[in-house]
Write a structure and sequence with these properties.
mainly alpha, 66% helix, Histone
């Protein structure tokens, strides 16, 4: 069913209104998140500044051991006959 000229223009106006409303909502949301982001980064900075500083390197948490790549490959590969 074909649209009449009046229907087409009404649809275009409605679409324009919707676009405008969506843009406004998006802008408001962006402004809110920007403010929130600023606050959270400031809080993180404060926390980092007031956190106790480590004096020696030996006090750091030990690094997690990773299995060497060769060992991983061999365990995966040996699925055939063992003998």
């Amino acid at each position: 069913m074909a649209q009449t000229k009046a229907q087409r223009s009404a649809a275009a106006q409605k679409a324009a209104r919707t676009r405008k409303r969506n843009a406004k909502l998006k802008a408001e949301a962006a402004a809110k998140t920007a403010a929130k982001r600023k606050r959270s980064t400031a809080a993180k900075k404060r926390a980092a500044a007031s956190a106790p500083k480590r004096k020696t390197a030996s006090r750091k948490a030990p690094t997690k051991r990773k299995a060497p790549k060769r060992a991983i490959k061999s365990t995966i590969k040996s699925k055939g006959k063992k003998r």
